[in-house]
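Fold this complex.
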Amino acid sequence: MTRRMFVIRVCVLLTMITGVNYIAWRWLDSIAWSAWWIAVPLLVAETYSLIDTGMFGMAMWRLKERGEPPAPPDDATVDVFITTYNEPVDLVITTAAAARDIEYPHRTWVLDDGARPDMRAAAEAAGVGYVTRSEDWTGKPRHAKAGNLNNALFQTDGEFLLILDADQIPDPRILHRTLGYFEDPKIGLVQTPQYFTNVDDADILGSQAPLFYGPIQQGKDGWNAAFFCGSNAVLRRDALMQLGIVGYVREVGSTVRRAIRTADTILARAAKEAPVDDPAVGRAITEVRVAARTARTELDAGEPFADVTYAFQRRVDDASTAVLREHADAIRADLAVIESIPVEVDAELGTLVVDEEAFDLLAHRELSPLGAIESVRTIASAINVDVAGEAQPIMPLATISVTEDMATAMRLHAMGWRSAYHHEVLAHGLAPEDLGTMLQQRLRWAQGTMQVMLRENPLLKKGLSVGQRLMYFSTMWTYLSGFAALAYLAGPVIYLGFGVLPVEAFGTDFFIRFIPYFIANQLLFLVVAQGVRTWRGQQYSLALFPVWIRACWTAFANVVMNRPLGFVVTPKTIEGEHKPPWRAVWPQLVAIVVLTLSVPVGISRLALGYADLGATLVTIAWVVYDLVVLSVIVRAARYRAQLTPTEVTA
Amino acid sequence: MNLDITEHGTTSAVLVLNGRLNLVSSPMLREAVADVIADGRTLVVVDLGAVSFVDSSGLGALVAGLKTARAAGGDLRMADAPEQVASVLRLTNLDRVLRVHPTVEAALDA
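Structure:
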């Protein structure tokens, strides 16, 4: 063990021992039950934070510093994907040209989800490939960036894929520095850091994430759980395709089983609604019902889905053909409107000549009179193995979340693939340039993470190790911090304003437990961070509390109640005048005002003899801490990235 | 990989694969399936007897072929998979969707 690891582990142990000691005392012996309505939420928030710290400590325990990467293979084939939707053509082409000039042999592709003619022309001029969605996607769910990548996977054939956001300019050596890890055949993903060049030292918007693209990823890596972060990562195509196949099988299974479960109900209703003067339709519906039941029995017996659905489709076809044969008039009418089917008009009699082939074509469910019974048609088409609701049957990148990267990585890990975090900046990108954009981006990340947690909870997901479960869960857990923040902000205000203390007393009992925990915790951060600045991140984890709460709520409404998330692509450049988006941060501004006002109120109460000196001083210190943390929001709202020289001269 | 097409009757075709069905050769399979279906041979049997290796891209081509065949009202079936192929099918659970028929004849008659 290195000296650094030894010190980290000592700090982790100290933090956990002092933390458990403090929280246990808080639960057992400090709650002011008369003020339970604030005492209990505050203690729950503190317990939440200790669990958060515990999972952080667990990651740090196995912090993995990989150092020099292994040498790359000689003959790997690589596709470099640059994903874009609406970013300026110049920005994309700058990235594409840098990608084209990557030294390791490869092919470069611009994946333009906006299908812009000028983007295509620019890509061709730059000598890189250009990919847009195929026709299969027309009228189907597009699945944002995941859909864009899934589409490109079927138009290219490299063994490895380097994925870059439109603004992430790669280093020429990026593939040389990452491909070597794939010599281990179980490695499916290599992630490198994201680093932003349009950010100054102060980094008011907290764009650089040195703690995440550093100790946290290295810690997760130690548990074989380094995350995929959507850009600056290399993926093994075979691993992705395997995910796609497994996902396809799962999708077919759930679609077919769901359709068969509901078939009976829907077909029973269709039978009732069938015209009484048309026994053929009634008979056909009965036949389809019998077919659906047979299909269910066969599936329960473990027959493959393709066989079961094929037999089912045949029976539905037979049933519709039977109806057709009894409806010659309707068929003629159909034929008259369907010009695409070659039908000849008899020159002498003026009637249509319908041959067997045309009959077969008409028996195709969408065209037949039976197909007019919409519910039967829907059911029949859902009991199939073609996943007709999606553009392509195989979706290698997960589409269950707006953060497709995290969901994909978790599925890779669950399938037994390994990942590596290579801690070396190999691409330089652009961060959001104002608070509004930044808020939108953070909201999207948080929403996506919560979607994954609600749809595929890592604690329950098969195939993950205990460490991997906790590494994924801890990221999701951090996004619950918005609720804890409410308690941390309300606590001091309630004492200073109303004299209600959530703790029995801020006496010696409190301090001898709290101070060691606080110090050990800060020490752990200090040792882990090794000089990188983590204060901005700490500020935002509290200061963005409304964003985290909104993300939890909207993700819940989306997953459980099928409401839309209101997903917006993060713009990379901003046009027009800059106005501080005060409205977007009103909860923080209210909190700042209330916290500030609580101080004179508290001092007045102390002067009038209603309050205790010690408690007032501790609470004011608490308010000052909250205000210092929240103040970043005011600075961020007023902030705008420095104009680039070209903009100044323009 | 080599790919030979033999026609059976008016509505069926057998694709005999030989070699490695992987990301390099899978487009060939996808195109062959699309071609025979465009010719009206909607029951496609893929003979895997001489396939030495299949990867996930190869499986992807089989699934894409299945979708194409079903869309045309037909079917795609596999026959005679060697152990490596069968084990990849099990690993990905694709054997839950597609049956491997013991022989081409059995696949055509199923």
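Strands of chain B lie at 2-8, 12-21, 43-54, 75-79, 100-101.
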